[in-house]
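Narrative of accomplishments. A recurring question from our advisory board has been how the design workflow behaves on a single, concrete structure rather than in aggregate. To address it, we present the structure tokens for one chain from the evaluation set, followed by the sequence designed for it. No filtering or post-editing was applied between the two.
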């Protein structure tokens, strides 16, 4: 396994549980890159896009599996993975936003998803700290949250407990391929790790690994997101649901801590935190939740969402036997970790996937194989 983020660790846990010999190679700290920055919303309904039906289905399957996933993980690891059944509110501040929310409600009902329209007074009964600026809200009772830092710590212990070897501070330089199939990984330090199967779960850095045959490569780009972590010295109670306003959101942890995010920026591998981003995130959030201005800022950070050209995940066997992709989860890697782990671990063990082949087609790495991407040639007769 190359990469020890939420995806690599989830796959490692599920694969080790199946009795496979698993080694995770992580160049930094386990769970220390994008997964460390993520807010942890489990939000297939809030992020629903009618043009991305396969992704919506995958997200719903994963969200529904979360309660059992975290229950089993807590038992296996002895740690609390930080799952919070908090629900989500989408908020509108003016007539234009209210009109947009009304369209969003119709779209979700059209997709058969659960969403309720709340007048401002009804939303304030649920969340009394919301400002009079609130015009309309949608309640999404099935979108919850998890603390990604607790989750990855639990996954690491769960994977170790199931027999996986986790090697932090171990950078892979290249995938080893011989005789047309993956054979292991060569480390930056020079030594080689041999393996029958290699899973690439290195987030947006997956595309920069050496040794991958051109026909098995997947183009990925990093999409930067800046977030603030804050706590309320008065304790919990300011906000109990996830609150989303346009692209921004506030995620409660249930104990007086909050995550405010996030920007969407295409700036390569830059993870600097900027004054402008922090200012805009706070300005928009305080307008809806004035009490936020009393919170203490604990941390400012930026992470890099791994994104394929079509922004859909890349999960499954590549055209090179033994080489498997598990990345490209973009805005939903925490949400999609349980289902990705099941799909990849069952492929590694030679079992049937928990999702049908047809449903998985949209995520197949082979969709980026050069033959598929080449413009079709047309022969013009004389
Ligand atoms: P990572 O966590 O980045 O793990 C990849 C690992 O690979 C890293 O630890 C890295 O060090 C390692 N690696 C890289 N190169 C090598 C190498 N050569 N050798 C060894 N190891 C290597 N998703 C949600 O579902 N809900 C959210 O609310 C949410 N909020 C987000 C908020 C922000 C601001 C951001 C940036 C993302 C958010 N996401 C969210 C998306 C989510 O964080 C990602 O989709 C997810 O973390 C990707 O997990 P990963 O394991 O693929 O990547
Ligand atoms: N899913 C929230 C984000 O990526 O910012």
């Amino acid at each position: 396994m190359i990469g020890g983020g939420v995806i690599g660790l989830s796959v490692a846990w599920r694969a080790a549980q199946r009795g496979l010999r698993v080694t995770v190679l992580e160049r930094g700290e386990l769970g220390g890159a994008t997964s460390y920055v993520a807010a942890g919303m489990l939000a297939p309904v809030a992020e629903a896009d009618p043009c991305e039906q396969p992704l919506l289905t995958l997200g719903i399957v994963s969200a529904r599996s979360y309660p059992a996933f975290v229950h089993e993980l807590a038992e296996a690891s002895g740690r609390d993975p930080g799952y919070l059944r908090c629900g989500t509110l989408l908020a509108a501040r003016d007539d234009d936003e209210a009109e947009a929310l009304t369209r969003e409600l119709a779209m979700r009902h059209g997709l058969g998803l659960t969403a309720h329209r709340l007048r401002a007074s009804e939303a304030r009964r649920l969340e009394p700290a919301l400002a009079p600026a609130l015009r309309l809200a949608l309640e999404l009772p099935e979108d919850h949250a998890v603390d990604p830092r607790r989750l990855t710590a639990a996954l690491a212990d769960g994977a170790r407990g199931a027999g996986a070897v986790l090697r932090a501070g171990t950078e892979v330089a290249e995938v080893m391929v011989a005789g047309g199939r993956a054979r292991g990984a060569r480390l930056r330090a020079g030594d080689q790790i041999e393996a029958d199967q290699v899973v690439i779960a290195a987030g947006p850095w997956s595309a920069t690994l050496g040794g991958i045959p051109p026909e098995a490569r997947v183009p990925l780009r990093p999409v930067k997101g800046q977030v603030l972590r804050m706590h309320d010295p008065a304790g919990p109670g300011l906000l109990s649901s996830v609150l989303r306003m346009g692209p921004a959101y506030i995620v409660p942890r249930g104990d007086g801590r909050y995550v405010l995010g996030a920007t969407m920026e295409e700036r390569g591998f830059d993870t600097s935190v900027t004054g402008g981003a922090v200012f805009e995130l706070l300005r928009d959030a305080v307008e809806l939740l004035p009490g936020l201005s009393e919170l203490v800022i604990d941390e400012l950070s930026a992470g890099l969402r791994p994104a394929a050209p079509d922004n859909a995940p890349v999960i499954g066997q590549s055209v090179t036997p033994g080489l498997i992709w598990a990345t490209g989860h973009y805005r939903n890697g925490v949400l999609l970790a349980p289902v990705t782990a099941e799909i990849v671990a069952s492929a590694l063990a030679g079992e049937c996937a928990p999702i049908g082949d047809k449903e998985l087609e949209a995520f197949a790495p082979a969709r980026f194989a050069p033959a598929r991407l080449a413009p079709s040639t047309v022969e013009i007769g004389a």
